Amino acid sequence: ATPTALLAATGRGAELGVLVRGPEVLESLRRVDTVVVDKTGTLTTGRMELAAVTVTDGLTGLPEHEVLRLAGAVEHRSEHPIGRAVAAAARERCGALPPVDGFAATTGLGVSGTVEGRSVRAVRPDGAAAAALPPELVRAVAAAGDAGRTAVLVELDGRAAAVLAVGDTLRSGSWRALHRLRGMGLETVLLTGDGPGAARAVAAELGIERVHDSASPERKAEVVAELRAAGRTVAVVGDGVNDAVALASADLGVALASGSDAAIGAAGLTLVRGEIEAVVDAVRLARQTLATIR
Ligand code: ADP
Ligand code: MG
């Protein structure tokens, strides 16, 4: 009855909105004791909006809308939710955006390019760069974090020009999903490329105790490896290109169907409805199915 039961469970999974890559995935699901979740686009909607702009007092001599126009031009080329938010706000406030030369995107860090002869970067304010910022920008980075938002540092010709605060909202099912997972005896872990402020705000709201912030794609995979080395059976839930390595290195990768092709390609399980609560249903299904087989 084993193959038949597995096949039936796979079909049942599809009804629940969970695409199972193969029968072995159900076995991994049954054994999972730790669920590691990405933040942006997974626990949150990923539909980000620009919430605040803080420019330096005179360092670059450019007014707010000019800095936003240049940053928006570069972010327009980014596929990241942050890029889309900044570009949309810039277009709305400044009209058509100028073209970009030499565009480059670094996963988990930000974007750069040349606009109207100026070199423009929009990036995560990391340790060293953040410490050397003018005080009003240091305060803007802190304020963004306190509000659960992501701070983006805009540099023009190598000088800090502004901090943008970008935020989105939790998906409606996130709270319930995480509480149900813990109710089933699973530990939940937040693993995000975002900074400590935004990470802590989301973790507090969802009752997640273990948090890893500011994680590059490689660091995400490392965290998963460390958990596995400590004897955990780990599922990773993510949506982004930046999650693909972590998904592939988990006992079980779970991707949102709304996510990137890289994430879906690296996953054993795809959540069709784009709802993380489907993971809970999938774990229950696997536990029930495999309990009846043995
Ligand atoms: P998450 O793990 O929450 O999905 P990412 O790994 O995609 O986050 O991004 C990590 C961080 O890198 C973001 O919080 C942001 O600070 C920075 N970043 C990524 N892409 C961009 C971009 N296009 N513009 C500015 N900053 C970006
Ligand atoms: Mg993400």
Automatic annotation (TrEMBL):
One of its GO terms (biological process) is copper ion homeostasis. It is found in: Cell membrane. Keywords: ATP-binding, Cell membrane, Membrane, Metal-binding, Nucleotide-binding, Translocase, Transmembrane, Transmembrane helix. GO terms for molecular function: ATP binding; ATP hydrolysis activity; copper ion binding; P-type divalent copper transporter activity. It comes from the Bacteria. Its main location: membrane. The keyword Iron-sulfur does not apply. Belongs to the cation transport ATPase (P-type) (TC 3.A.3) family. Type IB subfamily. This is Copper-translocating P-type ATPase. The chain holds residues 381 to 674 of 735 of the full protein.
